[in-house]
# Entry
Amino acid sequence: MKVYFDNAATTAIDEEVLAAMMPFLTEHFGNPSTQYSFGRDTRAAIEEARKTIAQLINASAGEIIFTSGATEANNMAIKGSVNYLGVERIITSPIEHHCVEYSVDFCRDNLHVETAMVKIDGNGNVDLEDLENLLKASDKKTLVTLMHANNEIGTLLDI
# Structure
């Protein structure tokens, strides 16, 4: 029996998801950004998936953005929050994924965003009292970016 302990980083595709994806990996592989029929069919499937996800989380379809993975999503969320939502301050932790760390560093060094690190205990848990104090310490528009499930040490942040 195989045992895999890194499911927070990547995991096997669920059989139901794989079955739903197979037609788009084998038959309907058209570029969804084109005007020809292969692309239109793929685009329609993407838009249907967007609507389904939006309904499940009580969002609008326009709020659902698909990315190639977590690194792209983290970069987009962090830098986009600064560039388009006016975030002036970011709170994160010293045990975040490198893509978060590098994006926060970029915002600090190039976009002049204030950054703060929340304290972490010896087991990798966020010090919620320290987080509360950091939030109270400034009136600047602040983004908090903390990992829910740490793929290296296994801690879970109660969200």
In short: The chain is about 45% helix and 5% strand. The longest strand covers residues 89-92.
